């Protein structure tokens, strides 16, 4: 078994859609980035890549490559999960937290979990997504950006459902 940890942050800007966990969230601002800037999916990908010692998303999907301009991060997550499969790893579980003062994310969490689970080809009960504020402290508390953290456990043993 191997543990991975991921973190990502993007700043809020006008004129961009807000995508978190593969779900579009109604908001007057979105996250700035080369791809769709989905901080939650980016943190999840880095956790998975870290657990498997396969680098990070910056190395796999560099922002200098026009192929990833406005890329759908869910599709990138599918590629990361494909790499894990090639290395014969399976995901035991994913746990993540989005740190944002606004908008309120709890109504969207079930759909985020479903999107992540589908992209990873695992059951939704293996995916946890939480949201919290920072009580108006720091850049996330001021609404200047959104951050996300993720932790995962992967295993190279054959999962129970495949035995």
TrEMBL record:
Recorded metabolic or biological pathway in which this protein acts: Isoprenoid biosynthesis; isopentenyl diphosphate biosynthesis via DXP pathway; isopentenyl diphosphate from 1-deoxy-D-xylulose 5-phosphate: step 4/6
Listed GO MF terms: 2-C-methyl-D-erythritol 2,4-cyclodiphosphate synthase activity; metal ion binding
Co-factor requirement: a divalent metal cation
An annotated GO BP: terpenoid biosynthetic process
EC numbers on record: 4.6.1.12
Residues involved in 4-CDP-2-C-methyl-D-erythritol 2-phosphate binding: 8-10, 34-35, 56-58, 61-65, 132-135, 139
Transmembrane among keywords: no
Cofactor binding remark: Binds 1 divalent metal cation per subunit.
PROSITE patterns: ISPF
Reaction catalyzed: 4-CDP-2-C-methyl-D-erythritol 2-phosphate = 2-C-methyl-D-erythritol 2,4-cyclic diphosphate + CMP
Protein residues bound to a divalent metal cation: 8, 10, 42
One Pfam family in the UniProt entry: YgbB
SUPFAM superfamilies assigned to the protein according to its UniProt record, in alphabetical order: IpsF-like
Alphabetical keyword list: Isoprene biosynthesis, Lyase, Metal-binding
Record-annotated site: Transition state stabilizer: 34, 133
InterPro entries referenced in this protein's UniProt entry, alphabetically: MECDP_synthase, MECDP_synthase_CS, MECDP_synthase_sf
Domain 2-C-methyl-D-erythritol 2,4-cyclodiphosphate synthase: 1-154
Family annotation (NCBIfam families): ispF
Subunit organization: Homotrimer.
Similarity comment: Belongs to the IspF family.
PANTHER family: 2-C-METHYL-D-ERYTHRITOL 2,4-CYCLODIPHOSPHATE SYNTHASE, CHLOROPLASTIC
Chain's role: Involved in the biosynthesis of isopentenyl diphosphate (IPP) and dimethylallyl diphosphate (DMAPP), two major building blocks of isoprenoid compounds. Catalyzes the conversion of 4-diphosphocytidyl-2-C-methyl-D-erythritol 2-phosphate (CDP-ME2P) to 2-C-methyl-D-erythritol 2,4-cyclodiphosphate (ME-CPP) with a corresponding release of cytidine 5-monophosphate (CMP).
Name listed for the protein in its UniProt record: 2-C-methyl-D-erythritol 2,4-cyclodiphosphate synthase
Organism: Caproicibacter fermentans
Lineage, uppermost ranks: Bacteria, Bacillati, Bacillota, Clostridia, Eubacteriales
